[in-house]
Amino acid sequence: MILPIYTYGNPVLRKVAQPIDASYPELKSLVNNMFETMYHADGVGLAAPQVGLPIRVLVIDLAPFKDEDAELGSFKIAMINPTILERSAELLPGEEGCLSIPGIHETVFRSKTIKVHYFDTDFNEYEEIFEDYKARVIQHEYDHLEGNLFTDRVNPLRRQLLKSKLTNISKGKIQCNYKIITA
Question: Residue 68: what pLDDT?
């Protein structure tokens, strides 16, 4: 089932998401719906707050990059209750966009390498190191779980220049090819 995506200005995007446990109802169904929603919107990552749920769940599928990098193309993951344990001091710039902030793309600096603790949908526990683009996308989605958006990481001058666009998004003055819920 395709879920509506909550856009900039909606309070759920600024809440710190809460952990869940194995008793969370219909978790696998939710994760499948999140993947379907993300695919429908042509995204590569989606966090539960973006579909209105302030819980610590995120999904990523980098298959659109398979022609550029086979390793990225085979990277598909759902993370439950992720925690970034370590971040490298080395930062890399990269252009980011967000399904909750349609039409805006900006350069953001992210750690090159991260170490993440998380659970899969069966609540098997993992601790893994991710680098480069995988690390970038995980950090972007993880920010959603912390109530942060990629525009918070844009340099202050660029953020000021984006203010009117962000205001328009929060007022619903945007066109999307996917269902949205505005503030």
Answer: 87
